Amino acid sequence: MTVSRRDLMLGAAASACLLSSGGGMLRAANAQSGWAPTRDVELVIPFAAGGGSDLLARVVGKIIVEEKLIPQSLVLNNRPGGGGAVGIGYVAASRRKDPNTIILINGTTQITPILNPAARTLSEVQPIMNFMLDDFLLFVNGDSKYKTAQELIADIKAKPTKTFNFSTGGTTDIMAITVFSRALGKDINPVNFNSGGESLTALLGGHVDGTIGNPLEFMGQLASGKVRALGVFRDTRFAAMPDVPTLKEVGLDVPNFQMWRGIAVPKDVDPAAQLYWQGVMEKVAASPTMKKYIADNVATEAPIVGADFVAFLAAQEKLYRGLLAKPA
Amino acid sequence: MEALMDLGGGFSTALTPNNLMMCFLGVFLGQLVGVLPGIGPSAAIALLLPLTFGSDPTASLIMFAGIYYGAQYGGTITSVLISVPGESSTVMTSIDGYQMAIKGRAGAALGIAAIGSFIAGTISTLGLTLLAPPLAQAALAFGPPEYFALVVLGLVALAAVSGRSVLKGVAAGVAGLLLATIGIDPQSGVSRFDFGMVWLLDGIEFIVLTVALFGVGEVLASCTAASARPVAEVKNVLPTREDWRRSRMPILRGSVVGFLVGVLPGTGATIASFIAYIMEKKLSRHPEEFGKGAIEGVAGPESSNNAAAAGALVPMLALGVPGSGTTAIILGALIMFGLRPGPELFTQNATLVWAVIASMYIGNLLLLIMNLPLAGVFARLLKVPYKWLYPPILAICLVGVFSQANSLEDCWLVVGFGAIGWGMKRFDWPAAPMVLGLVLGPMFESSLRQSLTMSHGTAFIFINRPIAAALMLAAVLFIAIPVIAGLLASRPRPASAGEAP
Where are its TM segments located (chain B) (predicted)? Predict the structure, then answer.
């Protein structure tokens, strides 16, 4: 634990530098990676089974197994808790330097340490590749009296602050609510659940006034009219939902806020192994199964590899800190 | 009757040789993981998921469902034979089931558990067949305040019935809740009470505490008992007519309660099993037999946990929301197979849904056929004197715990809590409320904090909402009635009123 605390104190900026220089060396090395997994590969999922990141990890696993991308078998290990901090902590503490471990990382694992300085940061793992960007939508129950975002926004603005309860299924949802609240000038009261599924259940039961979430968990409900999408948190409308306006269109100045999802290996893993995993993950990203999965979930393909991924993460960190007004 | 026609179609799919094979494989694996204390159905399904990629979704889901309800049968065996619950939902079974085994009636306990599970599994699958969509909709009325009230009611009621002293029961339950706060706070991600030790970040696993308090504690308590336990005379390998008469109603009640509790998203077989136990003890004409080998204490919870497994599939299939940890993984599997869970699953993927439901009737029958002869076989294991069984039981406890997270620290915890378990037995403190406090702690805490967020900090939310208020009132009565009755009984004459505390 003492070691990890010292690592934490290095700060996000310093570790981002370390990471990017490491990535640069990898690219220079460019030789055929002379490494392959030496035992069963453990894919750590720092979230509970059933959520969006868990599903992505399972698709990655499915592609690796089906297309026989690695010579060993693959074991999936859910280590949920603490907004991803438990899983990251597990890899940082128990799997350090282990090239046979890979871990799913996403925006939540990056935001958690900003909100909670005791949590492990992404500087404790080595990012390998990003797969996709998920968008956020504003949802209400299908029976809600609010038919449009304007109606909801007008009512929120008319009532005292924190009158409205929104369910959340994780850290990024909370952050999206923060973004929404700031743009409105009125605070929304976030009711925190452990997964998107539980957040959805609370919305369906009418226990909260609305929610902000990724389209993934809501598509089945949307199709049947059990929930209604009022607006999207990005600059352009979705092709799949042409009727749902962007929040900018309805006069709300929200920044383009998206959630990334990718794969990392433990810190200080041998460069040859990092190169190996970059190769595997590029094949995963190129697979039709992955492309179909991303399209099915109304997300955007965003393959970003190695040093570029590290640079991307540094930019994201800056955006998140800015949104939360907590400079690095 | 449309449902019955659909079910007929389901049977024609489920009875194809391949699907029948997968059903058998599922229930067999479920039975197996149920027996092992370290690994549960959710871990088993998560492990198997990658192997089913690319295969037929119907066959895979039939297998996953089979693992889920099969595990409820398997967990019983170790609970009864060696007082080590294989699953959290069989904790209650180990109380009276093990006492029956000591008296040489392990066969009857296992037999009635198998029969009860079969009846409950069938009744609740029938409920799933006929009532899924309206029930799932009704279950949504349960929000955080209702879940909090339900957990409070469950813990209070259990504390009130599980020992001779309500106070000891409540204290044990609170101790369990306190243990549950160790690790990373599920709401804000702050680590609590980890004393700087990384391995405590995950908190204390339920299996560690259960194995220690029930398994190790029982072994230590028996070793220090003055007289060696006599070899159990194995008689009545199968339940007698009398057993059956006494178990009939507990099985039916357990089935209904288990199914209804299972339908509530977020609760599951564990809560169902202990509600059934409480109910049977309260309704019984001879409650003093509970804890000493009452067959109702096996029949009720065993039926209930099986019924809950089918119940948990209701919100999953009808609404696309997870009913329990295991169904959350099955839900993930549905998406993996390219299906879209949601209210339209029943109409758009009718063949698959009805085949899975039909397979559950078949799977329960397979489990009954498998378990009735096994009950006799397992019961005969106890012809070995317990003194020879103790070392292997301790070994199973430690290996089971180690296998779960490959953690030696967990093994030390087993040793430490085992000593506490022995002390609790010695001084007559009930262990079940402590285990259930630990299991329900996260739900207790999350739902309390969610409710108070919703209500902006006022506790009136538990009184303003009718369902929550009714549950809370019931919890108060559970504590108040014995206390008031005790006060009344302790002062038969006004003159002596001053003496009683």
Answer: 20-49, 61-85, 106-132, 138-159, 166-184, 196-220, 256-279, 312-339, 351-369, 389-408, 467-489
> Residue B285 above 90 pLDDT?
no
- A1/B140 Cβ within 8 A: no
The domain segmentation of chain B, as residue ranges, is 2-488
Separation CA A26–CA A20 (nearest Å): 10
CB-nearest to B197 from A1, A66, A204 is A1
Average pLDDT over residues B182-209: 78
Q: What is the largest CA-CA distance in chain B?
A: 80
Nearest-angstrom CA–CA distance, B246 and B226: 33
Instruction: Read off the pTM.
Output: 0.80
In a mutagenesis test of the B interface, which of A3, A47, A189, A191 is the best target, namely the one with the most B β-carbons within 10 Å? A191
pLDDT of residue B450: 93
3 state SS of A158: helix
In the three-class reduction of DSSP (H, G, I as helix; E, B as strand; rest coil), residue A305 is classed as strand
Q: What is the pLDDT of residue A40?
A: 92
* Other C-beta atoms lying within 10 Å of the C-beta of residue B193: 13
Predicted confidence at residue B359, as pLDDT, reads 95
pLDDT-derived band of residue B493, with 50, 70 and 90 as boundaries? Answer: low
Distance CA B233, CA B230 (A): 8
- Establish how many alpha carbons lie within 13 A of residue A305's alpha carbon, considering only the half-sphere containing its beta carbon: 15
- Give, for A3, the enclosing helix (H) or strand (E): helix A2-9
Q: How far is CA B160 from CA B259, B284, B437, in A?
A: 24, 15, 14
Query: What are A207's two structure tokens?
Result: 């226990």
Q: pLDDT per residue over B124-174, tens digit each?
A: 999 999 888 888 888 888 899 999 998 898 888 888 777 678 888 889 999
- Quickly state the pLDDT bin for B454 (edges 50, 70, 90): very high
Mean pLDDT of chain B: 85
**Structure confidence at residue A24 as a pLDDT band (50, 70, 90):** very low
Give the gap in angstroms from C-alpha B367 to the nearest C-alpha of chain A. 27
**Distance in angstroms (rounded) separating the CA atoms of residues B498 and B379:** 54
**Residue type at position A177:** I
Instruction: Please say if the pLDDT value at position B407 is more than 80.
Output: no
Dihedral pair phi/psi, residue A302, rounded to 5°: -150, 70
Q: Please, which residues 215-234 of chain A have a Cβ atom closer than 8 Å to chain B?
A: 219-221, 223-224, 226
Whether pLDDT at A131 is above 80: yes
The per-residue pLDDT for range A90-110, each reduced to its tens digit, is 898 888 889 999 999 999 889
Contact state of B456 with A54 under an 8 Å Cβ cutoff: no
Token pair for B283: 């309704």
User: Does A69 touch chain B if contact means CB atoms closer than 8 Å?
Assistant: no
Q: d(Cα B359, Cα B123) in Å, to the nearest integer?
A: 14
Give the CA angle between residues A177, A182, A186 to the nearest 5°: 90
Question: CB-based contacts of A48: which residues, under 8 Å, 6+ apart?
Answer: A54, A78, A80, A194, A195, B325, B328
CA distance B348 to chain A (A): 11
Better pLDDT: B267 or A172: A172
Which residues make beta-bridge pairs with B424? none
CA distance B13 to A245: 44
ipTM over 0.90: no
Contact A66 B344 (CB under 8 A): no
CB contact, 8 Å: A192 with chain B?
Answer: yes
Contact with chain B for residue A86, Cβ under 8 A: yes
Helix (H) or strand (E) holding A43: strand A41-45
